[in-house]
Amino acid sequence: MRISLEWLRDYVDFNDSAEELADRLTMTSLESVTTLEKSEFLESVVIGKVNAVEPHPNADKLQVCMVDLGEREDSQIICGAPNVAAGQKVPVIVPGTVIPSGDKIGSVKLRGVKSYGMIASERELGLSDAHAGIMVLRDDAKVGDSFWNYLEKYWDGLDVEITPNRPDGMSHIGIAREVAWLNDTTLKKPEIQIEESDESVEAIAKVIIHDKERCPRYAARVVKNVKIAPSPLWLQQRLAAVGLRPINNVVDLSNYVLMETGHPLHTFDYDKLAEHTIEVRTAKDGEQFTTLDGKKRELNAETLLICDAKDPVAIAGIMGGENSEVSDDTVNVLIESAYFDPVTIRRGSKFLGLSTEASKRFERGADPNGVLYALNRLTQLIQELAEGEVAAGILDEYPSPIEEKIVTIRQSKTEQLLGIAVNQTEITKILKSLEFKTNVLDDDTLEVTVPTFRPDIEREVDLIEEVLRVYGMENVPSPGTFKFTSQEVVPKDDDLEQRFIHLWKGYGFNQTFSNSLVKKESCYPEDTGKTPVRLKNPLSEEMAYLRTTLLPALFDGVEKNIKRKEPNVRLFELGHVFDKSKETATGTQEYLHFTAVATGLESPVSWGTEEKQIDFYTMKGYIEATIEVLGLTGLSYKPLTSTLFQPGFQLMRSDQIVGFGGKLSDELQEKYDISQPVFGVELNLDTLNEDFSPEIYYTKPSEYPPVDRDLSFVVPQDFESAQLTDLLYEHGGELLRNLSMYDVYEGKPIPEGHKSLTYALRFISPERTLTEREIDKIVQQMVQQAQDKYGARLREE
């Protein structure tokens, strides 16, 4: 936000330079304050006076101007600006000047007439984007003087960044309030005097609020017989100094009061309002409205509208409409001054992608009890500059007045938190300088009435912070020594999340962290089984949805590493994913997921080792090792074909999906511009945690020798090996300690459409040596069950 120092002096006396004031205001907790930077270019620009203007003999849109440059020789300058006129003081870029683009201004011939230099617009001077006409200076500008001297007097100012919790600082009066207590002086707010006509406003206009929560207060005045005209030069230049484009006197005054008081206002053409009525309501989903910028906008049911008796005329707190704007033909004006719910305005602004000077203030929290001051200030100025006749009275709909908050502050607590000795008298003086009212409750406690222009003050610590910033952090003494204690925090290793982190770091994976807000294309609902949750007011479409899977962020990581010549990548992430749910108050359910991806070499290349690429079974091996180490049981694999993985698998517990993974599909490899195979897995830790126990049990190794057997079964080609694995375990009994499938074979002599699955079985007893006979009996039973249940038969060759 731009603050003009010349304008600021209307409300407070100070002798600080711009640089000094910027430093002091920054120390008062405003986010940052900077000043206009001096440049050699602006110093070299000269103030001139246009003595004469003649039409160009060979061009209809050009003028030949004779310009007085003081001690310099008068200059002939060709100018195409429509607003150039004799008698004006103007900034002139004289020949030989190097402008910011690096070009040098010289003498040129335009349509046969010589031109020496340039009469500049604000954009050509780098002051603003205004370029519809040349910059016209005030009458007291000194001809021949450096333009920079003029800027220091009338244009110099502060660029102020305001934290979201300080809406009171978004105006000249707000900054003047800060400067007043900094200099121990008085804030001078303009006094208001209005001459009202005999006609009552209640007889000629009406205000109805249909949504009192979103619009707690709406006030209006009517001014008749206004004379729409260009604003006087002082008003145009004040607006230009803060980056606003002059339009006409009524609209400009509305913007002037906005920048003066911080309270947004809007002026309607009274005669364009059906039945001279204002109604405040929410929009209907899909309702359309054309704003002042000429754009047709589609609204939702949370957007607040200002309407007349028939149609919308403005989007409340954001922008007015074409159908009610003040134009050169306007005669009568209705002035709006309202207080809108900050959350409503922010949601509307984000939904529409439309941020304005008004919305920036309303969404931070305008002053509900500053409505009438701003309304009357604008009414006064319109009466003075547009010669309007003000109808008697104010339409002020304020069904539930917002009261000032009462907060207590204790001297003892203030001293404890700040580490300084500050008595109750000093606290009272400080708070009164900020326009807080105080009342002594006892020797330690003050009751403080917080003005409604300070919505950020809610608790005692907020008041203590105010005391600190006025007292000055630089005045708080620093102790001679600095003491601290160090405490080593050891992460708990008895939960599943920490176990996963330790295990996968041990496998050589690096942990990553990504944003939970993603674009819709990164949700993959068809693969995750989750319905994407869209934010009501996303910052952008790239961050409009809560993620349903962690995988796309890791694929992005793989892509970036490979493009930076790092082809061997192993990444994992633990984080929450989201799904729509009717069972929660928010309509959203979240789950803790674990995701890992890997690509490249399985181990670094070195002498004596063969190069081996990570493949489908490498990733599956990591998962199985994790399952075994953590003692997770009852899990099985099921083939999966999905958008993400081809081939892929699902990790199942009975009929419940606890995870999925596989090889990144060729389509997505191409999308991510990855030229090598990538393998990934995503697991639901909330589901896995149901069977997880941090307890570790030790079984003494058997002193007796094992008995090993191999079994090869012939099964249909599409048969799932996990089914046979589970069955063999089930019927192997307590003596079967280990079972693994180590070979899959297709081809002769295996019949076409079939495959051979070969298992290694190990039987051990902790109490005795096993006999071949008893193992044969167990194996025969296992084979019989496999044949009976799945039709699997032993391979004969």
Account of the protein in words:
- The protein has 797 residues and is an alpha+beta fold.
- It folds into six domains: 2-36 and 159-182, Phenylalanyl-tRNA Synthetase, Chain B, domain 1 (2-Layer Sandwich), CATH 3.30.56; 40-155, Beta Barrel (OB fold (Dihydrolipoamide Acetyltransferase, E2P)); 196-397, Phenylalanyl-trna Synthetase, Chain B, domain 3 (Phenylalanyl-tRNA Synthetase, Chain B, domain 3); 405-471, 2-Layer Sandwich (Phenylalanyl-tRNA Synthetase, Chain B, domain 1), CATH 3.30.56.10; 496-688, Bira Bifunctional Protein, Domain 2 (BirA Bifunctional Protein, domain 2, 2-Layer Sandwich); 707-794, Alpha-Beta Plaits, CATH 3.30.70.380.
- The chain has 21 helices and 40 strands.
- Strands 27-31-32-36-35-34-33 form a seven-stranded mixed β-sheet. Strands 11, 13, 14, 21, 22 and 23 form a six-stranded mixed β-sheet that branches. The protein has a five-stranded antiparallel β-sheet with strand order 5-4-3-6-9, with no helix packed on it.
- Strand 31 and strand 32 form a beta hairpin.
- The model has no long low-confidence stretch (mean pLDDT 89).
